[in-house]
Amino acid sequence: MSEQLILDLYLPQPPSFEGFVPGENAEPLFMLAEWAAGATDIRFLYLWGGDGVGKSYLLDAAARRLAGALYINAARETLPDFIDPAAALIVDNVGALDPDQQIRLFDHYNTLREGSGRLLAAGSLPPMQLDLRDDLTTRLGWGLVYQLKALSDADKIAALKAQAREAGFELPPEVADYLLRHTARDLASLRAVLDQANRYALSTKRPVTVPLIRDVLAGDRHV
User: Fold this and answer.
1) pLDDT of the residue at 14
2) At what angle do helices 153-167 and 187-204 cross, to 10 degrees?
3) Which residues form the Hda lid domain (predicted)?
4) How many CA atoms lie within 13 A of 2 on its CB side?
């Protein structure tokens, strides 16, 4: 199997609600899907949690699910000057908003609230603990607020085993354990290493074992 064919077979899948491993986050995942489908009266939703819990993944998935949604990552993009009162606005990393952008999001919130629009936002802390304007943090806390909790090791292993089965092989327990002990522990990083290991295994006709994972992590083996 050629390298190009292997790469074509293992292109990353775009974020989706179905691809998110819920763990203890079943309720916020359900409400987010309802929000994106317009199947709930809740128009304002805020997600918070530490790095690697899936906030950006879910906001990206929501933007893909909801046609016409405006997605802004405040860490690298600015909010528009004006917004349709009926729009769906998605803002990631609200803690990165500078003072001018905070005022703009506050104004947008009021515009959406007075119209029929909706807002989905995410940050690293609960609204009232963010280092933002008080009037903005109050607005962000008016809707539903959910903490996204990190997956347990058992959840991560289950997700990696499912990924392996989809790729056509069984993940040995010792490989899963090695990944948890020797890589970044968020699921996105674990999945990326396993995907790279599988591509390398296919190209070299070797099974996915601890020695193969060790080679991949050494950085001198890749497809």
Assistant:
1) 84
2) 30
3) 153-217
4) 3
